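Allow me, if you will, to draw on your knowledge of protein folds for a short while. I have a record of one protein: its chain in single-letter code and its fold written as discrete structure tokens. Kindly check, if you would, that the fold set down in the tokens agrees with what the sequence suggests. Thank you for your consideration; the sequence and its tokens are set out here:
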Amino acid sequence: MTTDRVQLELHAREPAGTRAARRMRREGLIPGVIYGQGSEPQSFYVVERDFRRATGGGQRLNAIFQIAFGGGNGELLAVVKEYQINPTRAKLIHVDLQEIRLDQAIETAIPIEPVGHAPGVIEGGILNVVQREINISGLPLELPDVLEVSIEGMELGDSRTIADLEVPEGIRVIDEPDAIVLTVAVTRVTLVEPTEEEDEELLEGEELEEGAEEAADDEVESEDEVES
């Protein structure tokens, strides 16, 4: 459960264009906007190393932040609303925060975590995660860090949907329940071994083919004798 609050210091800034945002990123700063409840959005920047420390290197983006502007001791609470990552450097380049209240439900995206062992994977299949996050709603302090989905007993070609997720009480899933979240995919390497009956049919076919070739050879030899 997301029960802890992480201190995060923000610094107010004036809204600026792309050039100013690039300059901030070169200086190790991440620009962003925080959206309040009934108040105007406020532009800010946060020191990149501080944000990485607060989110465990980016692994806890669903944390509840206790916001302090410019070193003050604020009581403002916020969560990540949206973020942008540079696709080539895998680096956070922008973050939007949303002010929250602990007694009001919020919507957020939670990562999915497969648990267990799938026989289909042991046989050579690949666990294909179709949807890595799902959208849920709940009180901030009751939101889980991840939602688990069991892959026990999954054979080649099997799939799991959102309805198969283990959702804690009090949490509402927003996405459609029949949406597929993962599958055990068949690969080229994953070949089905022929059965004993198929083996016998294959051998019989080979014997018939060899017999046909021998008969054809005998027929050719007979024609040669007649011609001579």
